Amino acid sequence: MSKKYSNRVRDLKEIRKALNFFEEKIKFTYEPIPDVFEEISKKMSENIGEIFSNSSKKMENISAGEAWEEAVNNANTSFTKEDIEILKGLAKMLGRTDIDGQVSEIRLTNKFIDVQIKDAENEKAKNEKLYKTLGATVGLAIVIVLI
Predict the structure, then answer these.
(1) How much is the pLDDT for 15?
(2) Enclosing H/E stretch for 64
(3) How far apart are CA 91 and CA 72, in angstroms?
(4) 3-class DSSP state for residue 80?
(5) In total, how many domains does the chain have?
(6) In sequence order, what are the residues at sequence separation of 6 or more whose Cβ sits closer than 8 angstroms to the Cβ of residue 137?
(7) Fewer CB within 10 A of the terminal residue: the chain, N end or C end?
(8) For 92, which DSSP code?
(9) What is the mean pLDDT of each run of 10 residues along the chain (147 residues)?
(10) pLDDT for 127
(11) For residues 45 and 48, what is the distance between their CA atoms, to the nearest angstrom?
(12) 120-127, long-range: CB within 8 Å, 24+ apart, which pairs?
């Protein structure tokens, strides 16, 4: 149970890093979004890389925004519903506006993610120790009952 708090913080920081990379790539290279997403998927951890890889593959058949939304919904991450909604907000502008519009949407999403990271770190500090202590206590109780 305590691991989910650490995983959420890790996943949020990783998605922020990926979005920063995405922002820089579209500002300076003018590469198509599917190509950028495929490159990001290779550089990120498995869970976050999977979002970008799945999104890139789905862009062959549907719009970039729809592909992103589906990939975020089907991701195997430790994100909360609120985290997912923030990430899905990026889908509104993805591939529909010029580069400046997309960059501003990425920056807005990153600001929201920064707030989520702070919240996740607070939850982690509060709950991780509780669950570890509870697990050790229950383990000791089981050993005492078995003896």
Answers:
(1) 93
(2) helix 64-73
(3) 10
(4) coil
(5) 1
(6) none
(7) C
(8) G
(9) 81 93 88 90 89 90 89 87 90 81 89 92 79 78 85
(10) 73
(11) 6
(12) 120/5, 120/8, 120/9, 120/12, 121/9, 123/5, 123/8, 124/5, 124/6, 124/8, 124/9, 127/2, 127/5
Q: Which residue has the tokens 């010029």?
A: 98
Q: What is d(CA 81, CA 138) in angstroms, rounded to the nearest whole number?
A: 30
Q: Half-sphere exposure (CA, 13 Å, Cβ side) for 62?
A: 12
Residues 100-125 as b/e (b if ≥16 CB within 10 A, e otherwise) read: eebbebbeebbebbeebbebbbeebe
Nearest to 116 by CA among 94, 74, 85: 85
21 lies in which domain range?
Answer: 2-146
Per-residue pLDDT at 1 = 67
The amino acid occupying position 59 is: M
106 and 94 Cβ atoms separated by less than 8 Å: no
Question: Whole-angstrom Cα distance, residue 10 to residue 121?
Answer: 10
Determine the pLDDT at residue 117: 92
Read off the pTM: 0.81
